[in-house]
Amino acid sequence: MNRAIFLVGPMGAGKSTIGKLLAAQLQLPFADSDKVLEERTGADIPWIFDVEGEAGFRRRESEVLRELCRGPTQVVATGGGIVLMEENRRRLQKYGLVVYLQASVEQLLERTSKSGNRPLLQVEDPRARIIELLQQRDPLYREVADIICDTDHCTPKQAALMVAERLAQDETSQ
Fold first, then answer.
1. Where does the pLDDT of residue 74 fall: very low under 50, low under 70, confident under 90, or very high at 90 and above?
2. Predicted structure pTM score
3. What CA–CA distance (Å, rounded) separates 112 from 96?
4. pLDDT tens across 129-141, in order?
């Protein structure tokens, strides 16, 4: 594997957790684009959203993706909205293999309910917001995905194994 492996999907799909396990399994470095963005700016994502709005955050997110694409072969967990910009979708497809980690609304709601670090879910009805985001983003995740893995009924470790197996299958079929 000499290309980056980008994990895309909605918040709560397990991109960061599964990504770390997958990277360890494949003996590759791991990067979380949201964490890289926070390190570069010295501010957390909710603060960036508050001060610069979603547009400012998306601009910064694109800069981080551009930088990660120039880096070593690695596993990269991306932010849930990275696919919104066409430039990002092209970059993901050009520089890596894209794995869409998919999960049901119920799972996403359960997994995100404990986190206050999700600005887009700081609304009265998080379930409706998750449905709305999925309707908007699912076609974009599918557009860029080389592999789609459902993370609903498995532990992060099982999901990482499933992704690694699918990557191996994908590599042997090329």
1. very high
2. 0.90
3. 27
4. 888 889 999 999 9
Question: Above 90 in pLDDT, residue 11?
Answer: no
Q: What angle do helix axes 45-69 and 86-95 make, rounded to 10 degrees?
A: 40
Q: Which residues, in sequence order, are bridge partners of residue 96?
A: 4
**Which domains are seen in the chain, by residue range?**
4-164 (3.40.50.300)
Tell me the C-alpha distance between 13 and 15, whole Å. Answer: 6
Q: How many CB atoms lie within 10 A of CB 40?
A: 12
Q: Which residues of 95-109 are buried (b: 16+ CB within 10 A; e: fewer)?
A: bbbbbbbbbeeebbb
- Residue type at 121? L
Q: Is residue 166 within a helix (H) or strand (E), and if so which, with residue range?
A: helix 156-172
Nearest to 97 by CA among 31, 2, 172, 173: 2
DSSP string, 72-136: -S-EEEPPTTGGGSHHHHHHHHHHEEEEEEE--HHHHHHHHTT-S--GGG-SS-HHHHHHHHHHH
Phi, psi of 168 (to 5 degrees): -65, -45
Residues in the chain: 174
